[in-house]
Design goal:
- By secondary structure, the chain is α/β, with parallel strands linked by helices.
- It has one domain (2-205): Alpha-Beta Barrel (TIM Barrel).
- It is 41% helix and 14% strand.
- It is built from ten helices and ten strands.
- It has helices spanning 25-28, 47-54, 61-75, 90-96, 100-117, 132-144, 167-177, 190-196, 207-212, 229-246; strands at residues 2-6, 21-24, 41-44, 78-81, 126-127, 155-157, 183-185, 202-205, 216-219, 222-224.
- The strands form two sheets. The protein has an eight-stranded parallel β-sheet.
- α5 packs parallel to α6 (132-144).
- 40% of the residues are buried.
């Protein structure tokens, strides 16, 4: 399983080699100049924050396409880009005032539109929902739109980050894995990986940063480890070592000085 390390600082794209990174559009969109990446990376659309703050997407599809094309050209090494999907957490539904079905319809419609505008961009279709039956309905919407999920290089599973260790999410992951889909789990933390890592082709996490809030900084430049490159990479290496040796991550990997920085 490929594990994308979620990062806050786009400049880390120039400093980290041999580790796939995940960066949010919200961290890149305002920048006049962009870093040139020395490693493979993926783009998160920042949809949860966008919908949580505004109740809708402020960035239209044409502007998002323009931004992603710029990232692909100027940053380089873009593995894939997330669409402007619509999450289905209760807090988000309350903020938008829409139903799960409407969020799913808009998610599928967005992917179709993005591919019409920029077919060269590696957009990743994302399944959204809450219950298993919701995700199955979303898959059916993709099928009706002419998108064969089994033929896609990667299919995202959304609305799982804040409940990623639950039995419901495990059932969702295992159900779609049996359909021979190459799944990416958004925001899957250690407890989730312990349950169903083998069902995923890839996943991502920024949980190192949350854990680092409670650890004193390793140098005078920062009080905690919540935004420390050395801490993040050590956390990542420990996960990869354990995944490689046992197939499952440790419950709480501690940071070790294993980072390789350019």
């Amino acid at each position: 399983m490929k594990f994308f390390l979620g990062i806050h600082q786009p400049i880390w794209l120039t400093r980290v080699r041999d580790i796939p990174l995940l960066v949010s559009h919200r961290r890149l969109g305002h920048r006049r100049t962009l870093p040139r990446s020395v490693t493979e990376w993926a783009l998160d659309s920042g949809g949860f924050t966008e919908l949580q703050l505004h109740g809708h997407w402020q960035t239209n599809e044409k502007d998002y396409v323009q931004a992603v094309r710029r990232y692909a050209d100027e940053i380089g090494n873009l593995a894939w880009a997330a669409p402007q999907d619509w999450m289905c957490e209760q807090s988000i539904l309350k903020r938008t005032g829409l139903t799960v079905r409407e969020h799913q319809r808009r998610t599928v419609r967005n992917l179709v539109r993005l591919r019409e505008l920029a077919p060269e961009v590696p957009w990743v279709p994302t399944l959204q929902g809450w219950k298993l039956s919701d995700y199955e309905r979303c898959a059916d919407l993709y099928h009706r739109a002419g998108i064969d999920l089994a033929a896609e290089p990667l299919v995202g599973i959304g609305t799982v980050c804040r409940r990623q260790s639950s039995a419901d999410v495990e059932l969702i992951m295992r159900t779609f894995a049996t359909r021979n889909l190459n799944l990416h789990g958004f925001g899957i933390k250690i407890t989730g990986l312990n349950r169903y890592a083998e069902t995923l082709s890839s996943s991502d996490s920024m949980s190192w940063s949350r854990r680092g809030r409670y650890i004193p900084g390793c140098g005078p430049s920062h009080r905690t480890e919540s935004n420390c490159l050395r801490f993040a990479l050590s956390w990542y290496r420990r996960i990869q070592t354990t995944l490689g040796s046992t197939g499952l991550p440790a419950d709480d990997p501690s940071p070790e000085p294993l980072a390789r920085v350019a």
